[in-house]
Here is the input.
Amino acid sequence: MSRSDRNPQYYCPLNDKFISLNEADLLVVSREAKEDLPPPGEPVAKSNIVLRRAYEAEAEEVEDMCRYFWDETEIFCFDQTFDLNECVNFLALAEGEIAGLISWKRLGEAQIVVVLNVYPEFQGQGLGRMLLKEVMEQGRKQGCRVIRVATSNDDLPALCLYQRMGFQLTAVVPDVLRQHHDEEITGFAGIPVRDELRLERRL
Ligand SMILES: CC(C)(COP(=O)(O)OP(=O)(O)OC[C@H]1O[C@@H](n2cnc3c(N)ncnc32)[C@H](O)[C@@H]1OP(=O)(O)O)[C@@H](O)C(=O)NCCC(=O)NCCS
Here is the structure.
């Protein structure tokens, strides 16, 4: 798990520009001011957002999306490597276009989120939150008792999202990502990608 810096991963509303991880930075703003920031393009009407399982014929698009963000389709987290093809892949479509992906796998009574991505053009419109809510509902129906996610130490937007959705930090695995990649990569805002942060919430 370490993010690709080849592709823009976020949108900067102040410069109206899609930006890479190294170009990204933190700015603390009031909630009120945030509401006035322009989205990247026209916001998608809720009625034009569809969440559904990816069809087998969409395997390539699912892999492309994973590669866009992670440069790979096998994701290392929770001490093991998850192959996307063995996960439940769930898509968010905005006006018919693939906008977001969440991939998960059941391990015992736990639902493990392996991938959660929203393309920059569609970020900030609640799709990440919707995808997580949807898979939590699936997990509950299937009798899972807990949902777990892992993220890297630099991924401050994801940490914000998970904690605002009721997840709590359960473990830090120091240096595991640096060792996994055999080198130190820089992530969000130039922060070195080193540690895996694990979070969970009860379902
Ligand atoms: C993290 C990610 C999935 C969020 O998707 P999204 O559709 O933009 O998220 P939402 O619009 O549902 O936002 C939900 C919350 O996430 C947090 N968040 C999302 N983007 C953020 C950003 N750029 N800066 C700060 N917080 C952010 C906020 O807490 C937000 O809550 P709010 O809407 O009340 O402010 C998306 O930014 C992404 O794909 N990032 C790149 C890949 C990645 O890091 N994935 C997570 C791997 S563990």
Notes: Residues 10-202 form a domain with the Aminopeptidase fold (CATH 3.40.630.30). Residues 9-10, 69, 116-118, 123-129, 151, 155, 157-158, 160-161, 164 surround coenzyme A (CB under 6 Å). Helices lie at 31-35, 59-70, 127-141, 156-164, 176-181. The two ends are 25 Å apart (CA to CA).
